[in-house]
Design a protein that fits this description.
With about 240 residues, the protein is mainly beta. It has one domain: Acetoacetate decarboxylase-like, CATH 2.40.400. Helices cover about 15% and strands about 55% of the residues. It is globular.
Length: about 240
């Protein structure tokens, strides 16, 4: 039986920059009960910026907190449960523009959310111009950004592709204080994507994520694309120990 719904929203215009990383950097961050996932023998971490729209918690819209930007750094894990292979994501750090949103995520799931000023620019390509999707956040006096140029119309992801591996994870895992992990299900239809042209990650990686991620995120991404997004459902989490 599925868990009750915790949150509904729409995730739109997801810029996804994906970097190969030494798995040794991630192993201490893997929640109990899961193991690192890989694609064709390589391990990846992703910087993802997107719009969180029409957000409702337990069916209730929260005034002034329904529409906002999010930026996250994540990696990929898997877990077998009852003969089912569950492929999921683990978040290293998530940035949102409102402190109340960060507090709820830290309290409910023990996710590493922080609040910073944020802004965005989204232009979908049309017959006369290319598009651009950009998310920015401010740390101190500096504005940082993740961005990509897009063109034409979005297309479905190819089965078995690298893009499918990155985007099609339907579980989230978070290590908990005192041991154990929380597992929660995320539901959405498969997304269409644009190939990202001229992808940009402009930030102080060490300051934002620590020295461990400096080398990987300072190199060119192994792949990059922009996902159209969709409405999503996040179900209530449950504790797992193995």
């Amino acid at each position: 039986m599925k868990a009750p719904v915790f949150l509904t929203a729409a995730w739109r215009n997801l810029v996804m920059l994906n970097y190969e990383i030494d798995p040794a950097i991630l192993r201490t961050r893997v929640p109990r009960g899961t193991e690192l996932d890989s694609f064709e023998g390589r391990t990846y971490t992703s910087v993802v910026g997107f719009l969180f729209l029409d957000t409702r918690v337990l069916g209730i819209p929260i005034p002034f907190h329904c529409d906002f930007e999010e930026l996250n750094l994540r990696f990929y894990v898997r877990r077998e449960s009852g003969g089912e292979l569950r492929r999921g994501v683990v978040f290293v750090k998530e940035i949102v523009p409102r402190a109340a949103i960060a507090w709820v995520a830290r309290t409910v799931y023990n996710e590493n959310y922080v609040a910073m000023p944020m802004r965005h620019h989204v232009h979908i390509p049309d017959a006369t111009s290319d598009g651009r999707v950009e998310y920015s956040w401010r740390s101190g006096k500096r504005w940082s950004r993740v961005a990509a140029r897009i063109e034409s119309a979005p297309v479905p992801m190819s089965s078995g592709s690298h893009e499918e591996f990155i985007a099609e994870h339907y579980w989230g895992y978070a290590a908990q204080r005192g041991g154990g992990s929380v597992e929660y299900e995320v539901e959405h239809p498969p997304w269409r994507i644009w190939r990202a042209l001229d992808p940009v990650l402009d930030c102080d990686v060490a300051q934002l994520y620590g020295d461990d991620f400096r080398a990987a995120l300072s190199s060119a991404p192994a792949s990059s694309f922009v996902a159209e997004g969709s409405e999503i459902v996040v179900r209530q989490g449950r504790r797992i120990s193995s």
